[in-house]
């Protein structure tokens, strides 16, 4: 996700602005869902330990968020552009012209924050698909943020994962169980996705083990207590489901090459 600058609103004001955008879009039949750290924040809002943990994701404890990341359907691109124009948000004309089929950027009328809108999928180290049009994708499974399952995939696809993304994962694993409930972490769905793509599987399983390491570190620093075992248990459960899931022919073929050739996409920020 882009993080070229911090927002200049208070945390509660920023959250309210984000929720207001998604709500107003919904009223107009436009499907937008919140991604990233803010999505994590919305799911953990009732858990004090998870909130304290989440505040450690950046070096500036008073500032947890950098910008607003949303995802929508490409079939609604024109409606999305008109919607933000009506809200008097300023478009990034260069980015929107060059990348508008998959990504749109707008700036708050008073410059408080940037809105980064992805269409249909996230394309970073690996791809996370959400669908192309309303009624045919995953965005309607939850509101106002993407599902916890998709949050986990969003983080696990990062080839060079950093501390803040691991903290995000720790927080979501703390509050959500691994099962098939739509608002839990759907381990079966994640395992099926990874069983089709060896490169994604390789980075995701490595990241889950890195998550276990950072949770252990926080436990030893006494920043986590009994929550430590809960997170580890859930991560191990997911790893077990991933391991047991039958792998596709493409996965097996690519696994024979392993790391001898690149298995991920190099990611360049727009800014």
Description:
By secondary structure, the chain is an alpha+beta fold. The chain has one domain. The chain has eleven helices and seven strands. It has helices spanning 11-27, 36-43, 48-54, 77-86, 93-99, 148-156, 163-175, 187-195, 198-220, 227-244, 249-255; strands at residues 32-34, 68-72, 90-91, 103-107, 114-119, 121-123, 127-129. The strands form two sheets. Strands 1-2-5-4-3 form a five-stranded mixed β-sheet. The radius of gyration is 18 Å and the shape is globular. The chain starts with 10 loop residues before the first helix and ends in a 16-residue tail after the last helix. The model has no long low-confidence stretch (mean pLDDT 93).
Low-confidence stretches: none
Number of strands: 7
> Which strand order does the major sheet show?
1-2-5-4-3
Strand content: 5-15%
Q: Biggest sheet, in brief?
A: 5 strands, mixed
Mean pLDDT: 93
Number of domains: 1
| Radius of gyration, CA atoms, in whole angstroms | 18 Å
Number of helices, counting only DSSP H or I runs of 4 residues or more: 11
Furnish the topology, listing elements before pairings:
Blueprint: H1 11-27, E1 32-34, H2 36-43, H3 48-54, E2 68-72, H4 77-86, E3 90-91, H5 93-99, E4 103-107, E5 114-119, E6 121-123, E7 127-129, H6 148-156, H7 163-175, H8 187-195, H9 198-220, H10 227-244, H11 249-255
Summary, kept brief:
By secondary structure, the protein is of the alpha+beta class.
